[in-house]
Amino acid sequence: MTRKPSKQNSTPIQAGITRRSALKGAGALAGGMALGFAAPAVHAQQKIVRFLNGEPSADSVRALRFAAAQYEKLTGVQVRIDSVPGGAAFQKLQASIQAGQPYEIGTLSFVGDVLLLAGEKKIVPLNDLVKKYDWGPRILFPMNGNNYWYPYDYNLCWINYRKDLYGKKGLKAPINWADYLQNLTAVTGNGDGQLRHGVVHPLGSDDATNYTAFGYLWANDVRILDDKWNVVIDSPEMAPRVLEYLDFMADLVKLMPPSPRQASWANLVGDFQGDIVSHTPGTGRLIDQMNLTMPAKAANVASCLYPSKSGKKFAVNHGYDGWVVLDTPMTQEAIKFLTWFSDEHFINFLHSSPIHYQPTRLDIYKDPRWLAHPSLETFASIVDMQKQVLSDPNVVIRSIDTEGPEPDVRAGKLFRSFALPEMVQDRVFNGKSSAEALKTAAEKIRKVIA
Amino acid sequence: MMRGDRVIYAIFILAFALTALLIFYPAYHAVELSFQHRKSLVSAPEWVGFANYGHVLAMPEFWSALGRGVIFSGCSIALQLGLGLALAILLDRKLPGMAVIRGLSVLPYLLPTVVVALTFRWMLDGSTGIISHLAKTLGYTHIAWADHPVAAMATVILISVWIWTPFVTLACLAGLQSIPEELYEAARIDGAGAWNRFLHVTLPQLRSVILVVVLLRTIWMFNKFDIIWLMTRGGPQHATEHLPVLSYRLAFELYDVGKGAAISTISFLILSGLIVLYFRFFPLDQKD
Questions:
Q1: With 60 as the cut, is the pLDDT of residue A9 above it?
Q2: Which of A22, A52, A71, B86: CA 20 to 30 A from B261?
Q3: What pTM was estimated for this model as a whole?
Q4: In Å, how far is A345's CA from the nearest CA of chain B?
């Protein structure tokens, strides 16, 4: 007896397809799909390199994304750029590792963080890549003979000032503290060629203070730690220089806007651009940013190094930023990308903030591609100063977090303990003598690095 | 089992699973970290037992931070409660446009803390802040809110009061609106004045609301990290550094995750103890 086809399925059966064959077909399709999902998918074969960028300015992100798109066209490897503020990069990197989805490339701005990841074998040495180039001084920070990071800029902090005001008063760039205080006084007030305040310096317990307030200390030839990790800031050799620095800061604070303890990164830029101060410590970022938004004012900016009391030495505060490659299944692809990028697109990236991103590689300074950027000509005197920093033996490149004979977490602890900013606060705000402030700071430093 | 019961169980299980995932596990992990020595979250852990607790309890910074936390949360809660209750009584009146005023009064609570903190920082900025500018026009050199330890603490307390008082206002307003009018009428007939009506009718009727509000505010303010971190980062010279800030600094800035976690765990235990004591002395009304 044949079953009478129902009205619903009459059409398929009339076309020669039985319900059984339809069910088989559906089963096969489902099975195929299941196998398809289980098997490596075609799209999963694309290699992906995840890059955590710590330079979130629009131009820098664009430069990296453009490079990534070019690389994908060339190799088929996708490079995904995620951007966070530099200060948040280490925590995000840690979170990605903890989550089992580490980035392949990360940005770090703190040598202690690099050391920590290297010690845990979370990042891999980049020796072959680093060996390809000549590097400037105090930038590679090798660890146990390995170079774990590719530093891309010096991020040095110097003093920016208004050369138009200097012109009106017939002043010259300061070479010692007396000159500097004299210049600041001359351009401070409400008269012609004067602004309300002289210089803005954050003096709180924060990174901005650590980064901008101690150039004068380095210029005065002070070291906090010796080559054996002993605290020497209060030694007979260093103490007089530290006391001089503290007394100088007490004079300097009189020429600052009110409440330097609450001043932040924003004040360094805003107070200078807003004609509140005539001097501000900072990097080339200020100049790049002013050149984009207020080029006429930017043309009035000149820069000088932190002076010392004697005028014999000068300093810049070290900032530095670099890329690390994490230990993941895509490590080799990440290194390949970084190798290609450093030859083909690195200069484009540096050009995204040309005065700020001071090259760490010495070959870049001679590269016609780098030299072609118009800002390097407009601000040639600042670029010359940057080059001078790398070769002049009288210029000190130091920072709290790079103190000590080699990269070490202890220097990082010293940086984040804010012992030095508190030493300045004790002298300037809390009525302590310079000697008392130094004694308290030295005790704290010993405790922190113990 | 009825269909309605199944839905209730499903919702309960889902809520429990989410709580376990988002609260119990992280809390367990924090406690676990407190028994380990770790330089960072990615470092290999080393089991150290109660050593971190011993170190932390021996730190003078811990006790100072605890004291500052008590001052910060105590003053904030007292001011929030007083102001919140007063505002709730004002807003409970039936006046034209009161709905709009009630809406506006909640506004600070709706703003993200980061927005509030940055706005206050700009307003108080020594060079360009509007409050500093007004102070100058009144003959003051500037508002030294970040320079003096007491001023900095007062500033973060006042800002926290500005942000979180509306929560107290809302809760008390809801409580006030549920008090039967007959109670006030009876009190009036008995010759009670406004103060006595407040003391003998309003406050007893709001007791449960106030107890819950104080409990919640205590938990939140004792653990409040964002407003202090954004305004002062614990400064000047640790003057506003309470336990959450100290814990964060140890764990994420001074490469000592274990001690940071130990402080968080101790903080949790202190708070739990306070809550137990609180309910012992101020039990909530049992309703049949």
A1: no
A2: A52
A3: 0.84
A4: 32
